[in-house]
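S., here's the first fold you wanted:
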Amino acid sequence: MINLFNTHIETLSIHRVGNKSRNEAFFLSESPYGLNDEIMPLLKEFFLKSFREKEENYFQFAHDVDLDYNEMYNLASEIFTNPSSVHEVSKKITKHLFEQSNHPHIKNGEVYVAYLTNLSIDNNVVDAVGIFKSELQSDFLQFEEKESNLEMILQQGINLNKLDKGCLIFNHKKEEGYKILTVDSNRYDARYWLEHFLSVDAFQDENFITKKYLKFCQDFAKDVVLPAEDKKEEVMFMNRSVNYFAKNDDFEEQNFLNEVLDNPDLMSEFKNYKVDKGEKYSIEDVTSFPIANAAVSDARKKIKNVINLDTNIQIKLDFINPESAEKFVEKGWDEEKQMYYYLVYFNKEQKS
């Protein structure tokens, strides 16, 4: 978990980068930008708003041979070792970004490199390097009094409500390649920012594994439980799965299977499905791990608990009290109507 509320921008360097394939140049500022009390809160909100509003999917610097060959990892380490070097290193970062700007769709824009202090991540207060890029300009109007009339002047500038691209490199978990958050609002070339410029992989911590395992369970429910059982059992399997994650601090696969699978025939189906699909979710060798509560909460919001019927009726099952669906909802077949039915038991209707 992160907390950016007390984040302070210590220094800021602003440069401009063009598109190399269109023979556009880059521009490097000679000195850092002179921050003042008026613009500081505006820039802080511009830089950090997108990170507060998105899921915390962490990345880490990576390289096929060795982490020391990752250029951005080395540049970030240089800054964290000597924070006074941030402006000179920001020039190297801008040049590196320019070298990756070869695709004709990549837009030119301003590059902001900030040294940030007092960020909280995993209950640790750390520094961070923020790298941001503005690409799209918006039209806006200025007004000027000319004699007896008010004249409109059409101008263009950066919309401070939307960050186009950005990353936060936390001075945390250096040995694994640092923990990194990134945003990309203009995904015209998805590989440009993540792969070419940053060269990152997903950070495989408990948050990552928890999300991946729950996604694996969701697909197992759709691909195996639903065809073998019915929609109710698909929903209830995911219900039991999420509740297992919610009430336990640590995941143990065999305990999980014993608790969530009512049909013993599905036990072997689950293990076979994991052999076939586990690598896709990066859980092929995972049988135990600490559970990340934030990931469970996010997953619960996304999992559907509604049975949609072809008679334009919906049955919504309660994920908080799953035993209700187990006890009070029955599925059957009506010979006379040649239709399936759900029988729902209750004592009285609740007021909405």
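And the second, which I think is the more interesting of the pair:
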Amino acid sequence: MHIVIVGAGEVGFSVARSLSQDGNDVVVVEENPERASKAENELDALVVRGNGARPNVLEKAGIKPGGEVEMLIACSSRDEVNILACWIAKKMGVARVISRAVGLEFTDTDAWSRELGIDKMVSPERSVAREIENLLETQGAVYSSEFDETAGIYAFKVEEDSPACGTTLLELRKKNPKLVTIVAFVKRGDEGFIPKAADELAAGDLCYSFCYLDQIQEIAELYQPHKSKRLKRVIIVGAGKVGFQTAFLLHGNLKGVDVRIIEIDRDKCRRVAGELPKATVLWGDGADEDLLTQEGIENAGGFVAATDNDEVNLVLASQAKMLGARKSIAVIRRKSYMKLVEAMPVDAVVSRNDALSSMLISAVRYPESASTLAFIDQIGAETLRVSIPDDSPAIGVELKDLPLPPGSLLGLVKREREAGGLFIPTGKSSLAAGDNVIVFSALEAVNEVLETLGVSVD
């Protein structure tokens, strides 16, 4: 596929690298000399220097009447550049255009994208805030991704006093027959594997588990019994888009939670206080230990560092943990910092740029019948929602007989035609036409999984 990417910042660079590695013909448009040079030196892509909102620059990238470009992805940090680049590309006959939206108002509804002729506008802030809310609500989880209002995938670390420690998955299921869950992946030290029923869990294992949301607390208690306390107080440092959205979601979805926002910009404090009347908004420095102590950091169930500085967020989250916060979360942009969570006293790290990159990459990689729900970078795996077509060779075949590749499994099945709707399949389950299936797969096995299920990868 011929793809033009406008913007070679952290997001654009990551998207261009992934899509070029997939075998696509990628052209990157970048105005900043340093970013353009980095892209030229490190990417297998043609780089056009210039403003991506200028018709003559886009023409050099191949966007012109009768051109071969099939898709444009505008992911610069400026909405006006992204929107205008998409508008020009559409006018020049590019079949599909996708725009990053920095301003949240552009993704409040589909109206903006529809009126502008943009096929998809994506903003990571809402999904990042939702992930933070999930992590705070489920105290024992270090990763979360909801698929809909009923189910999701969560990662829990097995504690030494956990009922799951030293127990096989089969025994765990027999002891807890009312809990419907499946462990998709276990990370043990530097290694990882998709477990079998006879595999035994050990202290320190990180278990990625599919489960129903109405059972999440009970499942969390299996892995981390002492972290199942009710969330009462959350301190957020940084009143930007992520901090604001997190506070908004907490007040809307978790009744009675005391949310306190610390922001060093006085004007932003006034504005946020007016828009979030239920929150306590404080003008001050989030690194001020006296201020944190005064606001009850030792009794806080959650602490979120959501400033615009990655390094500051990691330090603040570490400080909060040492001061007594039950769970600390750092929001970052740099992908390389994701690994630091294992070496720092931080419970979870959430990446804005990773969320956006995953959305953009999945829009290219997979057809409409197979969309990415989450890319778990730490273990190189994806979860996808797949619609089983009428002519799928997998229909009626028991899953134990389905030739799925190593590194993959089916986690959830949603069958609209039957009562109950959603279920976690067993080896004796079989698929039907129209089923929506949640697939867990190592990245290199995704295409083979789709072929096995009869889903076109073109």
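Why I say that: The chain has 14 helices and 22 strands. The chain has a mean pLDDT of 86.

Talk tomorrow,
H.
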